[in-house]
């Protein structure tokens, strides 16, 4: 979004009262930024809270467009828009390109039927759900910029991560691939219909170096299957040594046992 020229602000609820989700407090924080549009993200287990927040925002600011993204709405776009009338549109799949395209059309032409020209966007129009309900996925992960970590309170994350069970602290997280080549019946990835895509070793290690400059000492790799391509893993480790990065990493989502060797 920043690359597309938008002024982005984030309301990070991580360090609000973790014992109670206060919808009014989050709503006030969002509207206190005077946004032209509000983007929310939700998993299935957080969708009730997302609905509550959307409804609270819409009640106080009825003309502010509310857009939802995340795995839940990507799987169930029509149902989600039907269940929560406060949500105006949904970005389906991976939104790095779709969301800026959507906002460009929203701010120039409004929420009209012209939105049908966009892939991976479901929206509300005339009491009906319109748009393309097939999720969109990014093929070239190297073309994406590093996450906009400057929008988040990194000092708080540094302090918080010192409580992790890690070989070194502070701890940061990153992804080096998206999707998974396997189709395990118990996993939601089977519903995505998207192939496994990887970042190049050079691209991965460049972000690791950025994290080291931010004083992180350990990285949690949250890929679904980091060790799928063992040759790529070797290349990443070789580059870490070549760059002299004093880093450790752990695989937060584990790994498939048939992709592990003695080495």
TrEMBL record:
<keyword id="KW-0408">Iron</keyword>
<dbReference type="GO" id="GO:0046872">
    <property type="term" value="F:metal ion binding"/>
</dbReference>
<dbReference type="InterPro" id="IPR036724">
    <property type="entry name" value="Cobalamin-bd_sf"/>
</dbReference>
<dbReference type="InterPro" id="IPR007197">
    <property type="entry name" value="rSAM"/>
</dbReference>
<dbReference type="GO" id="GO:0031419">
    <property type="term" value="F:cobalamin binding"/>
</dbReference>
<dbReference type="InterPro" id="IPR058240">
    <property type="entry name" value="rSAM_sf"/>
</dbReference>
<dbReference type="GO" id="GO:0003824">
    <property type="term" value="F:catalytic activity"/>
</dbReference>
<feature type="domain" description="Radical SAM core">
    <location>
        <begin position="166"/>
        <end position="263"/>
    </location>
</feature>
<keyword id="KW-0411">Iron-sulfur</keyword>
<dbReference type="GO" id="GO:0051539">
    <property type="term" value="F:4 iron, 4 sulfur cluster binding"/>
</dbReference>
<dbReference type="InterPro" id="IPR006158">
    <property type="entry name" value="Cobalamin-bd"/>
</dbReference>
<dbReference type="InterPro" id="IPR051198">
    <property type="entry name" value="BchE-like"/>
</dbReference>
<dbReference type="GO" id="GO:0005829">
    <property type="term" value="C:cytosol"/>
</dbReference>
<feature type="domain" description="B12-binding">
    <location>
        <begin position="1"/>
        <end position="113"/>
    </location>
</feature>
<protein>
    <submittedName>
        <fullName>Uncharacterized protein</fullName>
    </submittedName>
</protein>
<dbReference type="InterPro" id="IPR034466">
    <property type="entry name" value="Methyltransferase_Class_B"/>
</dbReference>
<dbReference type="Pfam" id="PF02310">
    <property type="entry name" value="B12-binding"/>
</dbReference>
<dbReference type="Pfam" id="PF04055">
    <property type="entry name" value="Radical_SAM"/>
</dbReference>
<keyword id="KW-0949">S-adenosyl-L-methionine</keyword>
<dbReference type="InterPro" id="IPR023404">
    <property type="entry name" value="rSAM_horseshoe"/>
</dbReference>
<keyword id="KW-0479">Metal-binding</keyword>
